[in-house]
User: What shape does this take?
Amino acid sequence: MSLAAELTAALDAARAAAAVINGLYRRNLAITTKADRSPVTEADVRAEEAIRDVLSRRFPSHGFFGEETGQSAMDAESIWLVDPIDGTKSFVRDCPFFSTQIALLRAGELVLGVSSAPAYGELAWASRGEGAFLDGQPIRVSATRALVDAIVSTGNLKTLARDASRWSRYGDLVTRVSRIRGYGDFVHYHLLARGALDVVIESDVNILDIAALTVIVREAGGVFTDLDGADVGLATTSVLAANAPLHATVAPLLGA
Assistant: This one.
């Protein structure tokens, strides 16, 4: 099945969400704390409603799994995975490192991803077999092969830090690479996909955070798994993403 119409819909949905988000950014919105202690604002809810409206009108038989409005038709062959504002904590503190994430899961496989960062000014997308793009230009992961030359970016490492053995291995990795940064959220995945850094490591994520970015990095030529080397799925909570040579090098160093 061609993904062209679904990609168009996802891009339109991301732009609709961006209009909502930009209209509410830096407006000192009321913040509600969810059961998992994460914040939610009017912008989160309204942006997801805008996304859901676009996608459900064009593909009424598709399932939907949204961060704010919940799940429906999860037994459908095709399911939209949506986080309207990934990085709400940044959003409420007037930091531009937040994004809208829209992915399509078909028959259990991630096949399409759109990552929109309206305040940051980037829009990335990819669909299976068609390559990855950033602001309309094709992008590709780096050709860096040696660990000593690698730039590594990390984020959300609490769970990793609680595992003494893996934390020790991570510490050893830090001494062997060129540079360690912590760009986090969508930022380091966009940088990875366009070859500006080489490895991303995270240990506290959920599928809505990373589904679209998984497709984008893979279509840019990268490898995207969890920290144990397993494929990305609905239950994924960690990330090891890199170009192919460095993924093969780093995975066993972290114990995958």
The chain has a mean pLDDT of 94. The helical segments are 4-24, 42-58, 88-92, 158-162, 164-176, 185-193, 207-219, 244-253. The CA atoms of residues 1 and 188 lie 31 Å apart. The chain is about 35% helix and 30% strand.
